């Protein structure tokens, strides 16, 4: 072959492909004119079609879409950007484990979409701080405070009696309740001006103070659970004007109407429109009027205001005792469903990638939210993917405040760590229902049966990282590399490399399958098993640190995507709670090391004192054990004694205290079992000894045989049963064997008794 070159204008350094007479392309000596050409003659580009024959190298996840009830490939509206809205809490009480599961699940899905699939997610969450439950709770607290203050000052029974009667009746007459509270407050202040902290209390301010308190508590609960903050937080109380405008647009488009100062969505008109459809999420939505009414709230107006029974409220005319805001239709407040439409639309606009919440919100809330938004924009589809998390059940019943079967997040965190609770949820598919079975001591809940698997899962990974770090430290290459360490691979390394590849494939298959976290954990545990097998089969000084560290970093990275490991760039779980509240490293080195140095100094002083006093080895060992069992755990350090030297492990003092408590309980249980077995053995031995005292000819006349027989031969062997019937030959033969065995035991007893008597006589 001979390359032909063509002269180019001065200053241009471009070479062209020379073409042979056969038509084949060859390449210039110093590179091609474009990236599609091979830079050297002996290199050919890979076959892209062959490489991608099974699909793209990085697949999109298939999410369970509530619209289709099937798993469908996720495709963002705008390149890599994802607009995502989830329904946040209604802040009228403390959050419970049902809330924890919902928001931890969405936190996991969000982390996976962001950190694993690398989407640019804008995550929006609302806070419902205008709601009938909040208003009623605010009035209840006010009434309880006034009754308590009245009883303190005394002499106001005539005013407290009607208020107590109203509360006991369960009637939701907030106007009358507010009036009784005000009269009682005035009487209290007249007697003692300092007895009421806020004499000018109004529901307009009081409900919001209550909502803010529970919102702050909820957000702290989420921080403690390791749930990442949303990118934007929307509150209904800050959106009332925009909600009014949003409703007006729906009215202008002909899909809503005013009635007695309230505004209702016109479901029949919407459903009859060729561009719209109601009941996208729930086919039975138009039939389930009772459930639809639940979404109207406890203070709903008379249904006669509506044109059709399926119509739902967008704006509620406020009654006495309820907070209120101005609108073209009179003073009132937003309905429940409209808030999410207006707030989500304000940030994400007329097209939303993902909308989500608990499955209990599917209908009526999300169904109505869709209808409102599509009516507002007059579009066919506002949301592309609706994802719902499964219920959390307590012994088969949905956990809820109304059923009084809920355990608060704070109470659960006293029993388990946030990471253990997150592992509990990861071991169950986020879209499926999940059951919790409380473990109780009396009326107190002390744990959950299902948590055992979560604690074991966490310990599996904790011990794995400790083993890896210990192995790397033992090689003197904690960073995974040492110039003095060999790195060539043998059969064991190739087997471990294959295990890493298998784990990556398994994790990816699980991730694209509706973010199947139980399968992800399973794949990681299989890799952990592979690494542990490698560490156990290879000599300590022959471990290949780079390969081991690669496996540990991958496990760390995936666990960080699931929110149970800290993304520090190292290996290990770290501390998932805190949410940035670490103080920015303001602690000095001295402050950080002080507890450790104090322990070392105290231990040294103790050892020196023991040595000076001539203490034996046992006393020295006891001092060492106290450091291991008491001192170090209080600093979050666990020491495992093993051949070749102890291995230290970092944890948290609280977790080590819990572990020590579990070990103590297990030890106590084991000792109790031993005690019972010993007592049982002693009882059986006593029974055997007592039985041995019985002469063979008296055996069948007492004890368990008493009353069974009526006649005996000269040796005391039964011949007739209690009814006088002669015993069968086979039965008498069996009894004879029993009597012979008894004779042996009795003879032993007599011999022992004689020996004991002889011994006493000799003494």
Trace the largest sheet across and list its strands: 5-4-3-10-11
Pick out the low-confidence regions: 1-35, 578-588
Quantity of strands, as a count: 20
Q: What share of residues are in beta strands?
A: 5-15%
Distance between the termini: 121 Å
Report the total helices.
21
Largest sheet: 5 strands, parallel
Secondary-structure class: alpha/beta
Helical amount among residues, as a percent range? 40-55%
Based on CA atoms alone, the radius of gyration comes out at 39 Å
Instruction: Determine the mean pLDDT.
Output: 87
Shape: extended
Question: Can you describe what's shown?
Answer:
With 763 residues, the protein is α/β, with parallel strands linked by helices. The strands form 7 sheets. It has a 5-stranded parallel β-sheet with strand order 5-4-3-10-11, sandwiched between helices. A hairpin with a 6-residue loop joins strand 17 (637-640) and strand 18 (647-650). Helix 14 (451-474) runs parallel beside helix 16 (517-537) and helix 15 (491-512) runs antiparallel to helix 16 (517-537). Mean pLDDT is 87; it is low at 1-35 and 578-588.
Features:
763 residues, 48% helix, alpha/beta, 21 helices, four-stranded antiparallel beta sheet, five-stranded parallel beta sheet
What topology does this entry show?
Blueprint: H1 48-51, E1 62-65, E2 70-73, E3 81-86, H2 97-116, E4 120-127, H3 132-153, H4 157-169, H5 174-191, H6 203-224, E5 232-235, H7 240-252, E6 256-259, E7 262-265, H8 267-272, H9 289-294, E8 312-317, E9 332-334, H10 336-348, E10 352-358, H11 362-377, E11 383-389, E12 392-394, E13 397-398, H12 409-415, H13 418-426, E14 434-436, E15 438-441, E16 444-448, H14 451-474, H15 491-512, H16 517-537, H17 545-561, H18 589-612, H19 617-631, E17 637-640, E18 647-650, H20 653-692, E19 709-712, E20 718-721, H21 729-762
Parallel strand pairs: 3-4, 3-10, 4-5, 10-11, 12-14
Antiparallel strand pairs: 1-2, 6-7, 7-8, 8-9, 12-13, 15-16, 17-18, 19-20
Helix pairs in contact: 3-4, 3-5, 3-6, 4-5, 7-10, 7-11, 10-11, 13-14, 14-16, 14-17, 15-16, 15-17, 16-17, 18-19
């Amino acid at each position: 072959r001979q390359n032909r070159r063509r002269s180019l204008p001065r200053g241009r350094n471009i070479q062209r492909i020379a073409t042979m007479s056969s038509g084949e392309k060859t390449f210039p000596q110093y590179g091609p004119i474009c990236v599609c050409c091979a830079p050297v003659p002996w290199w050919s580009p890979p076959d892209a079609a062959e490489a991608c024959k099974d699909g793209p190298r990085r697949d999109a996840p298939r999410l369970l879409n509530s619209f289709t009830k099937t798993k469908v490939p996720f495709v963002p509206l705008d390149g890599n950007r994802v607009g995502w809205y989830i329904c946040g809490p209604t802040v009228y009480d403390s959050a419970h484990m049902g809330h924890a599961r919902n928001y931890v699940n969405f936190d996991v899905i969000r982390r996976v979409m962001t950190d694993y699939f690398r989407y640019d997610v804008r995550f929006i969450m609302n806070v419902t701080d205008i709601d009938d439950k909040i208003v009623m709770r605010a009035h209840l607290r006010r009434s309880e405070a006034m009754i308590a203050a009245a009883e303190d000052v005394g002499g106001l029974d005539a005013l407290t009696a009607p208020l107590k009667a109203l509360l006991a009746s369960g009637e939701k007459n907030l106007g009358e309740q507010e009036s009784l509270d005000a009269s009682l407050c005035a009487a209290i202040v007249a007697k003692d001006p300092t007895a009421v902290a806020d004499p000018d209390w109004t529901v307009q301010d009081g409900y919001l103070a209550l909502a803010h308190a529970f919102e702050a508590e909820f957000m702290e609960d989420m921080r403690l659970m390791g749930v990442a903050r949303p990118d934007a937080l929307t509150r209904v109380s800050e959106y009332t004007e925009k909600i009014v405008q949003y409703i007006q647009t729906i009215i202008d488009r002909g899909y809503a109407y005013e009635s007695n100062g309230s505004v209702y969505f016109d479901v029949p008109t919407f459903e009859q429109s060729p561009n719209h459809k109601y009941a996208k999420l729930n086919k039975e939505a138009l039939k389930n009027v009772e459930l639809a009414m639940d979404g109207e709230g406890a203070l709903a107006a008379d249904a006669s205001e509506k044109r059709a029974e399926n119509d739902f409220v967008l704006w509620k005319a406020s009654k006495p005792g309820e907070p209120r805001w101005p609108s073209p239709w009179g003073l009132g407040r937003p309905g429940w469903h409209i808030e999410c439409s207006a707030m989500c639309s304000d940030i994400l606009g007329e097209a939303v990638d993902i909308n989500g919440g608990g499955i209990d919100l599917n209908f009526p809330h999300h169904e109505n939210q869709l209808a409102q938004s599509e009516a507002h924009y007059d579009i066919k589809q506002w949301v592309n993917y609706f994802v719902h998390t499964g219920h959390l059940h307590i012994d088969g019943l949905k956990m809820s405040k109304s059923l009084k079967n809920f355990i608060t997040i704070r109470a659960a965190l006293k029993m388990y760590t946030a990471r253990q609770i997150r592992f509990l949820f990861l071991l169950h598919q986020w879209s499926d229902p999940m059951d919790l079975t409380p473990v109780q001591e009396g009326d107190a809940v002390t744990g959950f049966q299902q948590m055992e698997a979560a604690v074991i899962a966490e310990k599996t990974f904790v011990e794995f990282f400790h083993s890896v770090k210990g192995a790397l430290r033992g090689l003197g290459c904690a960073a995974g590399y040492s110039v003095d360490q060999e790195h060539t691979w043998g059969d064991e390394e190739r087997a471990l490399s294959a295990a890493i590849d298998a784990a990556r494939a398994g994790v990816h298959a699980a991730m694209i399958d509706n973010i199947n976290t139980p399968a992800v954990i399973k794949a990681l545990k299989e890799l952990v098993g592979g690494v542990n097998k490698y560490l156990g089969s290879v000599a300590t000084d022959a471990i290949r640190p780079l390969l081991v560290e690669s496996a540990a970093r991958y496990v760390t990275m995936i666990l960080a995507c699931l929110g149970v490991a800290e993304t520090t760039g190292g290996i290990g779980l770290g501390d998932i709670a805190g949410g940035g509240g670490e103080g920015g490293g303001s602690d000095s080195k001295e402050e950080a090391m002080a507890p450790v140095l104090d322990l070392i100094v105290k231990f040294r002083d103790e050892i020196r004192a023991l040595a000076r006093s001539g203490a034996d080895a046992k006393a020295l060992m006891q001092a060492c054990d106290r450091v291991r069992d008491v001192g170090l755990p209080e600093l979050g350090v666990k020491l495992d004694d093993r051949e070749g030297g102890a291995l230290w492990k970092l944890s948290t003092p609280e977790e080590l205290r819990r572990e020590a408590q579990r070990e103590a309980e297990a030890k106590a249980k084991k000792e109790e079992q031993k005690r019972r077995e010993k007592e049982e053995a002693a009882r059986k031995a006593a029974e055997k000894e007592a039985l041995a005292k019985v002469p063979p000819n008296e055996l069948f006349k007492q004890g368990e045989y008493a009353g069974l027989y009526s006649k005996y031969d000269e040796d005391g062997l039964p011949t007739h049963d209690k009814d006088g019937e002669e015993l069968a030959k086979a039965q008498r033969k069996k009894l004879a064997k029993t009597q012979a065995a008894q004779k042996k035991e009795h003879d032993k007893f007599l011999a022992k008794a004689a020996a004991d008597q002889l011994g006493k006589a000799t003494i």
